[in-house]
Amino acid sequence: MAKETGRKMIAQNKKARHDYHILDTYEAGLVLTGTEVKSLRLGRASLVDGFAQLEGDEAWLYNVHIPEYTQGTWTNHSARRKRKMLLHRAEIDKLEQKSQESGHTVVPLALYFKDGRVKVEIALAKGKKEYDKRQTLREKQDRREADRAMSAVRRKQRGA
After folding, report:
1. Would you say 29 and 119 are in contact if contact means Cβ atoms under 8 Å apart?
2. SS3 call for 7
3. Under 8 Å between Cβ of 71 and 17
4. Which of 42, 69, 111, 122 sits CB 3.0–4.6 Å from 10 for a disulfide?
5. Do residues 72 and 99 touch, judged by C-beta distance below 8 A?
6. Low-confidence residues of the chain, pLDDT below 70?
7. DSSP for 10-73, written as a single string
């Protein structure tokens, strides 16, 4: 069997991009058990309630839901256990320093396989206010309407 290459997406946290201003992103490895990897290969995971916390010299990922592997035995993992993230010392120090500032947090954005290894994309983020969320939605809607109008004009030009 050939070794996997490239990036295969498992799960994304779209809610995080809606609720936070993303300031900086990092890629981290995860320490997982065998049944967790098998469950992820089936493409089942949820990052919605997940968050990262720095404890001492280590980074931990909390509340990420990886369901139990259906063919697992007594060695199966618990679905929401805390998982250790693998980051460089400089990255951990930088995250710890910046996350101490008020309103800043570390959230997972995506979970994916990269060359056969499970990686998590985490972000240093600052919480949005309610009016910021409305503004973002309004901008997205305006952009979509402008794109529709432009494509309608292009269709008319081709048809004429």
Report:
1. yes
2. strand
3. no
4. 111
5. no
6. 1-5, 70-79, 160
7. EEE-HHHHHHEEEEEEEEEEE---HHHHHHHHTT--B-TT-EEEEETTEEEEES-B-PPPTT--
Total residue length of the chain? 160
pLDDT (tens digit per residue) in 16-48 = 887 888 888 889 888 887 777 888 888 778 888
Task: Evaluate whether 48 touches 146 at the Cβ level (below 8 Å).
Answer: no
Q: How far is CA 102 from CA 97, 114, 122, 152, in A?
A: 11, 33, 18, 46
Rounded-to-integer distance, Cα 126 and Cα 54, Å? 16
The residues, any chain, with a CB within 8 Å of residue 36's CB and separated by 6 or more, are 66, 69, 77
Q: What angle do CA 141, 13, 136 make, to 5 degrees?
A: 25
